[in-house]
Amino acid sequence: MTTAPGQVSVASQGLRHPLDPDPARATKARAVFALGLLGMLTGLFIGGVVPATVALQLARQARREAYASGGFLTGGVWLRRGERLAWTGLVLVAVSVVVAVVIGVVRLAGTPFGHDYPANMD
C-alpha cells in the first residue's frame, strides 16, 4: 500500500531503526478510562462532574502527547472509551440537575404564597 506517488510502500519499508523506542501504552489512557468510568457511575449524584471533567482534560493531554510521540504511545481505544464514559457522566449530571430544578419548581408552585390569615380577619 502506498500513500502517495513516489513514496515507498508501508510493507517494503523494512525493519525499524534500532534506536527507535518500543511502542508503549500511555499511562494517561488508563487514567482517562478510570476517571470516565467513575464519572459515569457517579453522574446521577452530581459528583460525577469532577472526575468526568478531569478525564476530558487528561484525554486532551494524552492525545497531544501521543501525536508528539510519532506513534510510539498507544492506548487510543482506552482514550476513546474513557471520553465516551466521561461525556455520558456529564450528560447524567445535566439530567440530574434538570430533574432537581423541575421538582423544586413544582414543589414551590404547590406551596401557598403570602401570609395565611385566619378566616375571621379581614
Beta-strand content estimate: under 5%
Spatial strand order of the main sheet: 1-2
How would a textbook summarize the main sheet? 2 strands, parallel
Number of helices: 3
- Spans of at least 5 consecutive residues with low confidence: none
Strand tally: 2
What fraction, in percent, of the residue positions are helical? Answer: 55-70%
Average predicted local confidence, pLDDT: 85
From the N-terminal CA to the C-terminal CA, the straight-line distance is 92 Å
Could you tell me the radius of gyration in angstroms?
26 Å
Order of helices and strands: EHHEH
Number of domains: 1
Coarse morphology: rod-shaped
Structural class: mainly alpha
Transmembrane segments: 31-56, 85-109
Biased composition (Polar residues): 1-12
Protein name: DUF4190 domain-containing protein
Keywords: Membrane, Transmembrane, Transmembrane helix
Secondary structure blueprint with pairings:
Layout: E1 24-25, H1 27-41, H2 49-68, E2 73-74, H3 76-110
Parallel strand pairs: 1-2
Describe the 3D structure.
The protein has 122 residues and is mainly alpha-helical. It has one domain. The chain has 3 helices and 2 strands. It has helices spanning 27-41, 49-68, 76-110, and strands at residues 24-25, 73-74. The protein has a two-stranded parallel sheet. Helix 1 (27-41) packs parallel to helix 3 (76-110). The N and C termini lie far apart (92 Å). The mean pLDDT is 85. The chain crosses the membrane at residues 31-56, 85-109. Residues 1-22 are annotated as: Disordered.
